[in-house]
User: What shape does this take?
Amino acid sequence: MVSVCSRCGKELSRAEIYTGTIPRIDFYGSMDGISKSNRVTLNFDFTSPTEVFSCYSYTTWQGHNTLNFPKKNYTIRLFNDEEVTDKHRLVFNGWQREHKYVLKANYRDISQARNLVAANLWADMAATRPNLFETLRHTSNYGAVDGFPVVVYLNGEFLGLYTMNLHIDDDLFQMDNAYDAVMIANSVEPEECLFRAEATFTDQKTAWEVEFCGTGDDDQWAKEQLNELIRFVMTGSDEEFREHIGNYLDVDGAIDYLIFLYVTGLQDNAAKDLVLLKYHDCDAWIPSVYDMEGAFGLDLDAMAYADPAAFLPAQTDEGWDSGTGSLMWDRILQAFRPEIAARYAELRQGVLTEDRLTARVDTYWDQIPAEYRHMDLELYPREVPEGDPQEQMRNYIHERLVLLDAVFSGR
Assistant: This one.
């Protein structure tokens, strides 16, 4: 059915008749049989006040533990043809050309804000980092994911409130050489994810996973280079560590990563979802971030708000304890504490001011009409922490910065 303007008779586009305030995605077709490994092809409509297009989506579930939730994450690969041979590459939201995205459910975070606010904080930090690896400067978001809120429908029925995010892959990191690679740690438990044992790659659901390797299945070189880093962390003397860790790990990136963990309270991300990037023209692994749904004080295990005083570095009789359980972060803190304190003080003058952080939270929160949050909770009833999430994040940021100021000023 064609819609026309009642005043002038002109045929109206979907954008002109759309009354929503955030983009809407419509899937048409059947999701029968869909899983993480089994893809289904669906018609795909994207509608916003400024952008309208239709194509096909080659669609799967996405994630590991989140597959147990009734509200699924989806990986979508967009194509111009039903046979999925001609990629529909987009250039929008200031990103590089992409055709592969994640519709992230944010099932445990009803604010829908924590992951992307944290990702953009990481990008802000990276943009000011000394000696940032040049390729990362030209990626969509300095090597972090990015996204925006959307409402999703299947055959006209509300499927949920989501964020449409960049997908973590070689395109995100602008990798185009055979000897580029991406590693992700998938758990906080195995010793190998805590840099206390070499990576065996026997169970990629619970330990290290090769997310991308430019040489495909011939990835032994990348695994060995990761283990070279782990072995050095395990065996190097204190003097050797400070002098030579930069041969294996980007020290400036690691300092930023540790500060980022403390500011956001993401203790688990010291191991789980730690991303390490290896470029053919850079000897060292470069840390990056992923999956930060628990940022700013959301305890994902207990489904409660975390104490802002939890997870802080502490000095012990044996030296500095990072509070992460990770030998690598303990050693980074011990070896580079003056540099970490100096970088923290620098960031507190700009990227990490309280006003800037809370403004990021408020801006993202205000994008999403309350009705969509209510619709999502009605469709997927679940236990959520008591209290207003926006106010909780604002309070957490304030209290966290006060505590960290004291730690890094030496008071």
